[in-house]
Design brief:
This protein has 311 residues and is α+β, with helices and mostly antiparallel strands. The protein has 2 domains: 211 residues, Multidrug efflux transporter AcrB transmembrane fold, CATH 1.20.1640.10; 76 residues, 2-Layer Sandwich (Alpha-Beta Plaits), CATH 3.30.70. The chain is built from 12 helices and 6 strands. A 4-stranded antiparallel sheet has the order 3-4-2-5. It has a two-stranded parallel ribbon with strand order 1-6. A hairpin with a 4-residue loop joins strand 3 and strand 4. Helix 9 packs antiparallel against helix 10. The longest helix has 33 residues. The two termini are 50 Å apart. Belongs to the SecD/SecF family. SecF subfamily. Keywords: Cell membrane, Membrane, Protein transport, Translocation, Transmembrane, Transmembrane helix, Transport. GO terms for molecular function: protein-transporting ATPase activity. It is found in: Cell membrane. It is a multi-pass membrane protein.
């Protein structure tokens, strides 16, 4: 079915419409990031992290309501298991008196009968250092990717792959900003994984476009037709790879619990938009930049051409 829509002018129109949609989503993501920012987790902001267990299984919502009655500020409660919980408090509300109030309430309640396992404070200086180191790692990965693409591809295909990569990262960050999902170290690690996955998709399509351009050095087919053919020839492999990866990530999202939820959401979104951008950006933008079979013609000097023309 998809191969049918990728034929001829219909396929070209779909690719350009997809690129227009991507541009609109990027603008929306940038606007959301500038207005709402990211909801940085305790890894970056600092604050108290308390882990405790209960003597019996307690519903997360019921426990959260009970703690809210004995807590004077905002907090985040996550379940690590049926009777294992983790409570995070921002630095502005994580005072000693406030912590003692809710801890005394859950430990002295007969229905909950909680036992505090650990309570640690993470300073903002540590969070700033983690954020700086994480951003440095992502920046280094981007530089390495750009160098690799510059060596491997003709510059138009390389630019398309880099723009698709930036597009994927901005959309993932925009989603986290829009929904105010907690941005922590695991999410930052998922962005590095998205860089690799998005690059892989773009390289597969770019390699196929390059091969077909070299074959069509006589310019019989237009660049748009060659790009459509390249996408059709790699589409099945792309969908199978993305589908199996999405199934794995969805399992982590649904079964691994709250600690890995942000990681799974970021990866799931990155795989979807990465597959989309490899078709609508990585393969379409080079066409707008003037990619043609002439870019891959083998140039020979006058002496070699004379030898080739000899009977």
């Amino acid at each position: 079915m998809l191969n049918y829509f990728l034929k001829g002018e219909a396929g070209t129109r779909l690719r350009f419409m997809g690129m227009l949609l991507s541009a609109m989503l990027v603008l929306l993501s940038v606007f959301t990031l500038t207005q709402k920012g990211l909801n940085f987790g305790l890894d970056f902001t600092g604050g108290y992290l308390t882990e405790f267990t209960t003597s019996q299984s307690v519903e997360l919502k019921e426990l959260q309501s009970f703690i809210a009655k004995n807590h004077n500020g905002e907090f985040e409660l996550t379940a690590q298991g049926n009777s294992h919980f983790q409570l995070r408090e921002a630095p502005s509300v994580s005072t000693t008196a406030n912590s003692l109030d809710w801890q005394s309430a859950v430990t002295q309640n007969d229905d909950i009968n909680a036992q505090v396992l650990s309570s640690a404070y993470i300073g903002s200086q540590v969070g700033d250092e983690l954020f700086d180191q994480g951003c440095l790692a992502m920046f280094a990965a981007m530089i390495a990717v750009m160098i690799y693409l510059a060596v491997r591809f003709e510059w138009r295909l390389a630019v398309g792959s880099v723009v698709a990569l930036v597009h994927d990262l901005i959309l993932v960050l925009g989603l986290f900003s829009l929904l105010q999902i907690e941005f922590n170290l695991t999410v930052l690690a998922s962005l590095l994984a998205i860089i690799g996955y998005s690059l892989n998709d773009s390289i597969i399509v770019g390699d196929r476009v390059r091969e077909l351009l070299r074959v069509q050095s006589n310019n019989v087919l237009s660049p748009a037709t060659i790009i459509n053919n390249a996408i059709k020839s790699t589409l099945t492999r792309t969908l199978i790879t993305s589908g199996t990866t999405l199934a794995t990530v969805a399992s982590v999202w649904l079964l691994a619990g709250a600690p890995l939820q942000g990681f799974a959401i970021a990866l799931f979104t990155g795989i979807v938009v990465g597959t989309f951008s490899s078709i609508c950006i990585a393969a379409t933008l080079p066409e707008l930049l003037g990619l043609s079979a002439k870019n891959y013609e083998v140039k020979v000097d006058a002496h070699t051409q004379t030898l080739l023309d000899m009977p």
